[in-house]
Amino acid sequence: MKIFRGEQSTQQKRGRGRPRKGEEVAKKDKTKKNYVAKTFVAQYLVDMNAFRAFRRCGYGTGNDDNDSNESAKLLNKPLVQQLLVEAQNDLAKRANITQEMVLKELSLLAFANIKDIADWNGEAFDLKSFDVLTREQTAIISSISVTRNRWGDIDLKFTTPSSQDKRAALIDIGKHIGMFWEPTKAIDPDESARRIRQAVREGNERTSPQ
Q: Do 118 and 152 share a domain, yes or no?
């Protein structure tokens, strides 16, 4: 009796190196999910609106309620959230915005004191001259309006952060440094994206030539 070693059947040879059918399906499904997520994130970053992004991608059905629900589900998928965070981080990096910069701006807002920028004249606060105010001090001025009365005198009015603004800034700082603890809750991607876009816009305004 002859014994042949190392030989395989024709069926075994044909299957060598080829992925199984289940693996091929799983790979195609993963590729499709990646494409859907990346396409959706790209459209979502246009205006930070999940519903409109969902339809711009061509995923809409024409039914507002259905598309609203499905777009919300897609937005909260782990892969989409991961891609969104990566895109937002890249956006902040390209705008040259760091956590330290954001924390510093929050600190200026949280600990703003009107006595640093104005003097009391017995009836109202007079804004100090900009020649003596630092950039950090003027950063707490929310708005300035200049008008001229009928006698030709200039009337300057300014506003500073409200107590609600200061409280919100303090809470944000406390959360950032781990001072406050709260139960884990779902992240609001719309609010997160809005803050990033606002920070980028403010960063561009600060760095743009005057």
A: yes
Helix (H) or strand (E) holding 156: strand 154-159
Residue type, 204: N
Quote the pTM value. Answer: 0.44
- Total domains present in the chain: 3
Three-class SS state of 150: coil
For residue 106, which of 97, 115, 117, 118 has the smallest C-alpha distance? 97
Distance CA 127, CA 133 (A): 10
Give tens-digit pLDDT for 2-56.
Answer: 554 555 555 455 555 555 666 665 566 667 788 888 999 988 888 888 899 999 9
- 38: tokens are 């990346």
Rounded average pLDDT over 75-93: 86
Residue 46 CA to residue 52 CA, distance in Å, equals: 10
| C-alpha torsion sign, points 20, 25, 26, 32 | positive
pLDDT exceeds cutoff 50 at 137: yes
CB 159 within 8 A of CB 142: yes
Q: Do 30 and 58 reside in the same domain of the chain?
A: yes
Residue 4 lies in a domain: no
Residue 3 lies in a domain: no
DSSP letter assigned to residue 122: S
